[in-house]
């Protein structure tokens, strides 16, 4: 079963500087706007690149709205990481008026 959290949890962790955020959308979606500091690993690449995901602390996994992030979270948890899918994803972040970064870099 996928572990999920709400947007408020991500907002708190991000404000504290304690949020490792993984964005599993495609590169074009990510470049259009993402959570500041989020690292982009598209969902299809998560199994092969899970070693690039921080292994210390919680990893907040986002996509557009929360569907792809559930799948990525299951993969990361199977690899032993403390990963949670964020309900509402990047869309919820933007709708809440949170800042976004555009371009290919976190």
UniProtKB/TrEMBL annotation:
Domain Rhodanese stretches: 15-102
Species for this entry: Aquipuribacter hungaricus
CDD domains tied to this protein: RHOD
Protein name (record): Rhodanese-like domain-containing protein
Cited Pfam families: Rhodanese (PF00581)
Signal sequence extent: none
């Amino acid at each position: 079963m996928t572990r999920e959290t709400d947007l408020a949890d991500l907002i708190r962790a991000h404000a504290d500087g304690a949020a490792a955020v993984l964005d599993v959308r495609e590169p074009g979606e990510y470049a259009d706007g993402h959570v500041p500091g989020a690292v982009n690993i598209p969902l299809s690449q998560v199994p092969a690149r899970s070693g690039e995901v921080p292994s210390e602390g919680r990893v907040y996994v986002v996509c557009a709205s929360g569907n792809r992030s559930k799948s990525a979270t299951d993969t990361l948890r199977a690899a032993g990481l403390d990963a949670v899918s964020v309900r509402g994803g990047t869309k919820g972040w933007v709708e809440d008026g949170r800042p976004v970064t555009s371009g290919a870099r976190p």
